[in-house]
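name: query_chain
kind: protein
chains: 1
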Amino acid sequence: MEENTTTQIHSTLTLDGGRGGRLPVFTDRGLSRLGCPKQSCQLNVYDYLADIPGNADATDLVEVQFKNTRKGFYHNANHLPLEKGDIVAVEASPGHDIGTVTLTGKLVLLQMKRTPPKSMDDIKNIYRKARPVDMEKYNEAKALEHDTMIRSRQIAKDLGLEMKIGDVEYQGDGNKAIFYYIADGRVDFRQLIKVLADVFHVRIEMKQIGARQEAGRIGGFGPCGRELCCTTWMKNFVSVSTAAARFQDLSLNPQKLAGQCAKLKCCMNYEADQYVEASRRLPSREVQLETLDSTYYFFKADILSNMITYSTDRRVAANLVTIPAARALEVIAMNKAGQKPDALSLEARKEEHKPIDLATQDDLTRFDSARRKKKKRKQKSQTPN
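structure:
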């Protein structure tokens, strides 16, 4: 049977992002192996149109990814047969850079709507697929990044600059280095650029990033057990406030609400709107419920399931009763009409069954007395007449 990319095929793709190992790709679910990543999975987008005929001819624009989360759009002016995962040499200023193709065809146009470039005239060209000579220079430049970062941090400290250099990225040909730094305010790094250029003999470019962008570049895992959102798919960051935690009744514990970047977790915004909408169906927390036997105060609420727990004491948990929001609204309406229900819950009151303590059923020494009697009988049988 002829194999194709949409039939039941079990194949493997080698990862080129330096992570090693092999990634199983199961195409029996309609996934095309051409759309799966062959590089680091940071900000990866599955190209579900990769195996569609004529997709590559839809546009000459190609998305290229560089180190970690840096991406760019380039013209395939030479009409090279490019696929996702190909390593290419692209135009840079000055020289050239080395990156990995992450998207081709129609999806590139959709990506440009999400993150449009500053100007279409600024889009540069792809020179060629990377040759062994290009990869040799690229690997030599990448080997210098860690030592350059450590040394540049010391230089910034000696100059008394209030900044942190979080990452260094060399251009593919080794002629330029981008220094990513974090600072609370404006930093005059003109003297720093001169010193770095004299020490490393490359063209220097400084880029200021935020704490969330730094976490995305470094990578890591969140408390949910998955890779960080800023590492895998998130590029635009929205401000997060403690109001999102209050809407979801989360504990205002800074250690639990903070992410790897020491800022409030971005995921708190994901369900905040649903909680706000669901909370509108609940009665006010300030309203007291009156029954014939007691007065009930709000204690806690399960917002998504519309269940509310009331207590007979305003400050502590006492005689807790959990009822649906509809029942709470019904009792509130009865109280406004001057009526009081017999009980807060519609369910019949059940007698409390205390747990039976098996130790109180009999004397704990009953086994000892039986053992003594057995021992006496044994001694009598052994005593000679």
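note: The two ends are 97 Å apart (CA to CA).
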